[in-house]
Write a structure and sequence with these properties.
The protein is α/β, with parallel strands linked by helices. The chain is built from 16 helices and 20 strands. α1 packs across α9 and α3 runs antiparallel to α5. The protein is globular and about 90 Å long. The relative contact order is 0.14. The structure holds nicotinamide-adenine-dinucleotide. The site of nicotinamide-adenine-dinucleotide has 28 residues, from α9 and α10.
């Protein structure tokens, strides 16, 4: 069984840690590889920090036009190997092959956007702020940057940060999720082909131990985290306490309002794709669906049909739309939340628990599930399920629906389906969330926009992607200067 290596100082090397955990195909429990996991991964992280700090000295002074050249090459290499990378994503993470390819495409778009860093990093100059005095601002790299990634987008999420950090003149350390390290192993083989200083981009494995090493080492200046809210809060607090710049993206519980004036057929299809895509394991998955004025249950009926139509199975098999959830523990947790919803008073309109998927009986499968009339004062309504479960909440007015949206402790995404521009405008003005969708089910910002979670979905100031990433990975320096005539020597 292959034991995964770290990528440190431009070379593949074994971890100092002898303990390992299994990386498992969630569709059939096949062990794919083993990954180092334990206290000695701290030594790996510390070594990566030392070499990254060294590589930085040379890289920060390479002209920015030259710093983006390896990114063009990386885009090309990923595109040439796209199918292979997508297959790895499906094998370790479970989503369908089409979803894996789409995920990687979003990663590539971030590389493309980071190629604009020569322009995005440009700054401001004011001539004559006082007589004979000019003032200007420059952006400089901040140093060694580290990224801690979650399991649900093994190929895309590191690219919300990596290309921007490197283009801005920093060095970088990635700690992928221990559940899905294979995708980035393949991508780092491609990174190894780039013309970059040794130690500029590194990968270390592990869990809490290696993360804590990154959070506490004085040479690490910035931490980019994506994962669950409790861990995001911890990373933010620990990182800040250790004097680091931190952006920590957390969990979600995304509401979608459907107004009676919406195109119901279109809305139902889009909402079902949002709830059940990636088996609900997306931080932008719709979860609470608020149907306004649906007196005769028309919206409910089309949502039910759309949910029933989803095909579930192994993501590499033809025609499969929904794969398994990541672990047996995840499956048990989701089943428990469905039962809790029923105990709190909900009706089970569609029960996807314990499906039989021929040939994949051991997989962590759930089929689309719909809970109806979920208790507004219960726990399930505000708990991230992270599985293929839709909660249906009938309400009378758009005002009540927006109040409900704004009572949520998260704030990753809120969506509205309507044909009224006025309702859309009111909603986008009032909704207490950072990513808003109007007649959109997954309001994922394109790479040039920040991934703008709010409230318990984000801790920090500057988000991942686009201009926010450029600002996060640079520090501003303001220079004010005077060149008096009398000091200028005549030749
Ligand atoms: P997680 O929080 O369990 O793990 C994320 C990373 O943190 C992993 O690399 C893990 O090794 C590390 N980690 C776990 N526990 C830690 C601890 N106690 N101390 C230090 N490091 C620790 O998250 P996950 O289960 O991998 O991912 C799913 C979660 O991520 C969901 O809540 C989802 O909503 C969220 N997510 C958010 C976004 C976003 O943009 N807001 C995007 C994707 C996923």
């Amino acid at each position: 069984m292959e034991l995964l290596k770290n990528y440190i100082d431009g070379q593949w090397s074994h971890s100092r840690e002898g303990n390992t955990i299994d990386v498992v195909n969630p569709a059939n429990q096949e062990v794919l590889v083993k990954v180092p996991y334990g206290e000695k991964t701290v030594e790996d992280a510390n070594q990566a920090i030392v070499v990254a700090a060294k590589a930085l000295k040379e890289w920060r002074d390479v002209p920015v036009m030259k710093r983006v050249q390896p990114l063009y090459k990386l885009k090309q290499l990923i595109e040439e190997n796209l199918d292979e990378i997508a297959r790895l994503i499906t094998l370790e993470c479970g989503k369908s092959f089409a979803e894996s390819k789409a995920e990687m495409q979003r990663g590539i778009e971030n590389i493309e956007t980071a190629c604009a860093t020569p322009t995005l990093m440009q700054s401001e100059f004011s001539e004559n702020v006082a007589i004979g005095i000019d003032e200007f601002m420059i952006r400089q790299p901040i140093g060694v940057c580290a990224c801690i990634a979650p399991f649900n987008f093994p190929g895309m999420i590191p690219f919300w940060f990596l290309p921007y950090a490197v283009a801005c003149g920093n060095s970088f350390i990635l700690k992928p999720s221990e559940k899905v390290p294979l995708t980035m192993m393949r991508i780092f083989e491609l990174i190894g082909q780039l013309d970059l200083p040794k130690g500029l981009i590194n990968l270390v494995h592990g869990g809490k131990e290696s993360v804590d090493a990154l959070l506490t080492h004085p040479e690490v200046k910035a931490i980019s985290f994506v994962g669950s809210t409790p861990v995001a809060r911890y990373i933010y607090q620990q990182g800040a306490a250790n004097g680091k710049r931190v952006q920590a993206q957390g969990g979600a519980k995304n509401p979608v309002i459907v107004l009676p004036d919406a195109d119901i057929e279109m809305a139902a299809k889009i909402i079902a794709d949002s709830v059940y895509g990636c088996a609900g394991q997306r931080c932008l998955a719709a979860s609470n669906i608020i149907t306004v004025g649906d007196k005769n249950g028309a919206i409910k009926e089309v949502l039910l049909e759309a949910a029933k139509a989803k095909t579930t199975g192994f993501g590499l098999d033809e025609g499969i739309e929904m794969g398994p959830v990541i672990t047996p523990e995840s499956k048990t947790r989701i089943e428990g939340l469905i039962a809790q919803g029923v105990n709190e008073g909900a009706k089970l309109l569609l029960d996807g628990r314990n499906p039989v998927i021929p040939g994949y009986e051991a997989g962590n499968f759930l089929k689309p599930t719909i809970l109806e009339d979920v208790a507004l004062d219960g726990e399930v309504i505000n708990t991230e399920i992270f599985g293929p479960v839709m909660s249906l909440l009938p309400m009378d007015t758009i005002g009540r629906a927006i109040d409900f949206v704004n009572s949520n402790s998260f704030g990753n995404m809120a969506c509205l389906f309507t044909s009224s521009g006025l309702n859309a405008r009111t909603f986008r003005n009032q909704a207490n969330a950072g990513n808003i969708g109007i007649n959109i089910g997954v309001a994922a910002p394109m790479a040039q926009f920040p991934f703008s979670g709010w409230n318990d979905s984000f801790f920090g100031d500057l988000h991942g992607q686009g201009r926010h990433a450029i600002e996060f990975f640079t520090q501003t320096k303001v220079v004010i200067e005077r060149w008096p005539k009398e000091w200028t020597r005549k030749f």
